[in-house]
Design brief:
It is built from 17 helices and 15 strands. It is an alpha/beta fold. It is globular, with a radius of gyration of 21 Å.
């Protein structure tokens, strides 16, 4: 068994602290140390994962142009589309025995740009004799109208959905006698530990509103500029109608998709009030430490809101996909009053009104979260138990 490896793959890098949080949490749940195949291993070494797993960076075509041309020509001649995956995961296929490979699902299946790589990687592992698991996933139910997606999903051995909307869709369309077992467990990151660094000046513990915005919601807004204008109106409302401070907290810091850009624009606009502070980048554990000490939270990144929920912080989510709706429905019985779909924002004051309504229910929402969170986190631990069970089963063969 010692020469066999449990592999986690489709990990984009810890500059997305949601990706980092999933891997961090899963590693802490399991008794086996996994190999993490990462698109950006240098990011993982910079943050919290270096002591939790063995990090293996993918070979990236952008770093080897000649190899890209050769593989492109080879694929054009042979039709071997999986050759790109075998190149990227070369060491995994060449040097390791892999009884079990876990696709760190998240919302990867919500993005058209990811679908081909997900399908090819799943097939390449299976062709290598590896059982595959799709973990912690959210899948838009409408995507299951596509037969090619259903056929791909049916090739996983187990699929673990992180919220019930996805789970019900998978049960109805994907699970079958010869297909995968579908399970529903809360996102592993609900169990992520937090690390509390000293709070900066202007961030009173328990009387600060945490605010997160991402370029993703700006990309998905129904009308250009609506999301940012709603955030401006929100900050004005907090400043004019409450005594709370505002902490602007990033959760993804990739150059191509950096929360700090819109957050800094908000800071520059409101810095003169003395009511706004910027939180610097940190590990997922450190960012959760800041978020958990907020009084309320308004966030766009799913794992920023998971950090808030699991810290029992009343939270308003600015969502753009099934994941936000499903998680809120599982926590509260309904997404209404807890999620504002960014595509539906029309007026500049909708976010401020949603926040005002949450503020009116603040104590009740906090008490509800305090009541359900221990059991919810216990259920999240089932992710690790299921993967470890499968590892023990298949690594013996």
């Amino acid at each position: 068994m010692d020469d066999k490896k449990l592999v986690m793959y489709m990990h984009a890098g810890s500059g997305n602290h949601g990706c980092e949080a999933i891997v961090n949490s899963m590693c802490r749940m399991m008794g086996v140390r996994p190999v993490l195949v990462s698109y950006s291993g240098s990011e993982d070494l910079r943050y919290s994962l270096k002591d939790l797993c063995d990090i293996l960076s993918e070979r990236r075509f952008e770093d080897h142009r000649a190899a890209h041309l050769l593989y492109y020509a080879y694929r054009a001649v042979t039709g071997d589309r999986e050759s790109f995956i075998r190149y990227r995961y070369h060491k995994v296929f060449a040097e390791y025995q892999v009884p079990l490979a876990v696709s760190i699902g998240g919302d990867n299946y919500c993005y058209d740009t990811m679908l081909q790589d997900l399908r090819l990687a799943n097939e390449a592992f299976r062709r290598n004799g590896t059982k595959t698991v799709l973990l912690g996933c959210s899948v838009e139910p409408g995507l299951l109208d596509r037969q090619d997606i259903v056929e791909d999903l049916r090739k996983y051995h187990v699929i673990i959905a992180r919220e019930s909307i996805t789970y019900e869709a998978l049960k109805n369309r994907v699970e079958s006698e010869d297909g995968p077992l579908c399970l529903c467990c809360p996102d592993p990151a609900f169990t992520l530990p937090r690390r509390e660094l000293p709070l900066p000046e202007g961030f009173p513990d328990g009387n600060t509103v945490g605010v997160n915005i991402s370029p993703m919601i700006q990309d998905n807004e129904g009308s250009a500029g609506t999301a940012m204008e709603n955030y401006r109106t929100l900050l004005r409302y907090i400043i004019e109608h409450t005594d709370m401070q505002i902490a602007l907290i990033p959760h993804v810091v990739w150059a191509r998709n950096d929360d700090r850009r819109p957050l800094h624009a908000l800071y520059e606009e409101f810095a003169h009030t003395g009511r706004v502070v910027e939180i610097a980048d940190g590990t997922c554990e450190e960012l959760k430490g800041y978020i958990a000490r907020c009084r309320l939270f308004v966030g766009a990144r799913t794992h920023a809101t998971i950090a808030a929920y699991s810290g029992c912080v009343p939270t308003l989510t600015v969502g753009y996909s099934v994941k936000a709706q499903g998680i809120a429905q599982d926590l509260f019985g309904t997404p209404d009053g807890y999620v504002l779909p960014v595509q539906g924002l029309q007026r500049p004051d909708e976010l401020a009104k949603g926040f005002a309504q949450l503020l009116e229910r603040e104590d009740a929402v906090r008490q509800h979260l305090q009541g359900i969170m221990p059991e919810y986190c216990r259920r999240a631990l089932e992710n690790g138990k299921e993967v470890e069970r499968l590892w023990e089963e298949f690594s013996r063969r």
